[in-house]
Amino acid sequence: MTAKILDGRLVAEQVVARAAGEIAASDRVPGLATVLVGDDPASAIYVRNKRRRCVAAGIRDLHRKFGADVTQDELAAAIHALGDDPGVTGILLQLPLPPHLDAAALVSLIPPEKDVDGLTETSAGRLALGRPGLRPCTPLGVLELLDAHGIALSGAEAVVVGRSNLVGKPMAQLLLRRDATVTVCHSRTRDLAAACRRADILIVAAGLPGLITADAVKPGATVIDVGIHRTPDGLRGDVDFTAVRTVAGAITPVPGGVGPMTIAMLLANTATAARLPANAYGATFLSS
Amino acid sequence: MTAKILDGRLVAEQVVARAAGEIAASDRVPGLATVLVGDDPASAIYVRNKRRRCVAAGIRDLHRKFGADVTQDELAAAIHALGDDPGVTGILLQLPLPPHLDAAALVSLIPPEKDVDGLTETSAGRLALGRPGLRPCTPLGVLELLDAHGIALSGAEAVVVGRSNLVGKPMAQLLLRRDATVTVCHSRTRDLAAACRRADILIVAAGLPGLITADAVKPGATVIDVGIHRTPDGLRGDVDFTAVRTVAGAITPVPGGVGPMTIAMLLANTATAARLPANAYGATFLSS
Questions:
Q1: A261 vs A22, A138, A139, A256, B130, CA distance in Å?
Q2: Which listed residue (B114, B115, B117, B173) is catalytic?
Q3: CA-CA distance, B94 to B37, in Å (whole number)?
Q4: Are B62 and B87 in contact (CB under 8 A)?
């Protein structure tokens, strides 16, 4: 058996086209404030890519750049101002920040209706309580990818490997809301392979290259690899792709699987946020 | 084999004594505002019990009673006033509310630092993100009960049956934070008994009397029954106690198991909240 390849690039294009269509049809032009602090080269590349993709989709580019020596108070004031600015419909604070800054406190200043990364406590709470809200882009992208390929979630055994705030934990919440039976595994899980073999849908976001081998996969399972690592052999995920594709029913490649979905969902979230009134408590909007 | 009985009354007394000791040793007298709306007899009994227990522990009783015809705006104004009142250190809005009121919107007006029931979006978000915050009383009580009996959580397979905002979902988060491998099951789970048999620790909060029978329990497992139902044969839980106690290693009785823990944790949360400065973002306080 050779697994079906779940192409994220294709689905991401569809998501971006849909977001661009919504933006073109809307009265309100979304404006995304990408906030970049310091000179981390990886962050600079990520932010540049995000800005370029946003502009192509009809989103106004409201980039803010700060030096590595910016103070907590200066950055807080800037985020407050972006929060108050009606032309700014989305705010993305690129992480990590330099160590002298309190990232959690700064993220908390983003109004939930502009929280296009879904990282504030309010957004996390809305997800946990099953209320409408903006969701973190990567797990939302995984869900979109599964849906695009018609993979049924209701009643399925889903296993999430990894419990980060960015991926593992919100992924589990999203799957639970879609009626999967959800298990979260992590570094303290006693028999990881046995737990993973229970999965109809296995989502791996552990940050360890090649962690999941063929013996951890039930024949025919869907395997989603969130990991991405630079290795001497090129980009690799958390899943041993070559071995696992002979067992799985479907699998995401690395690169070209989950990666493109993350940025696509940022665009989708930005389009969604622009449709929200300020302080949209209880508003009905895109939720998964 | 006959399971050890996990007595909640005994542990609850210890928790209450500890909270009373903290209150007696503190400069600030906690004041709990219990907000009761309308004439639901069960709610009236619950609130009366909570008030009595709080007073016995040295908490100031700041009860507020509203008629069933109170408007959303009137209740919102009252909660705002309690939020602003420095003598009120905890606010408990007794649910359910009459159907003309938007309970979620009213709960959201409780400042997170006074949210002794742990029900606001901010509290749920802090729990989901693993940050300090006030946790919902019932799952916190289950954790306390497990700890009091020395039941190891790290690496254990924990299965939670039920995914309510009040119990199932926060329970899963608390267990995950304590390094258990956590599965959440619910009405759409395909083979509930098989999933439950994986559990070293099985926590049942499904709201269905006698749902869990002996075939769903691994020999030696710890079984925590959150359900409570009035039946012709007296109070019963979600677990078939008579059958399961012959298989399990430890089990909570109904009544006298989780029930007493819930109110004890309300007192503990109220003592904790009184130690918090207003707007205690990022404060280090009791968290699980």
A1: 18, 7, 9, 9, 26
A2: B117
A3: 8
A4: yes
Q: Is B94 a catalytic residue?
A: yes
Distances (CA, A) of B56 to A226, B14, B49, B148, B264: 52, 14, 11, 23, 12
| CATH 3.40.50.10860 is the classification of domain A26-114 | yes
Average pLDDT along chain B, 288 residues, taken 10 residues at a time: 94 98 95 97 95 97 98 98 97 97 97 97 97 97 98 98 98 98 98 98 98 98 97 96 98 97 98 78 41
B173 in active site: no
B232–chain A nearest CA distance, Å: 33
ipTM (interface predicted TM)? 0.94
| Distance (Å) from the alpha carbon of A69 to chain B's nearest alpha carbon | 23
Which residue intervals of chain A bear CATH 3.40.50.720?
136-261
CA B140, CA A20: separation in Å to the nearest integer? 45
Specify the pTM: 0.95
Q: Which two tokens stand for residue A174?
A: 């999203």
Within chain B, all domains assigned CATH 3.40.50.10860 are found at: 26-114
Q: What CATH number has the domain spanning A136-261?
A: 3.40.50.720
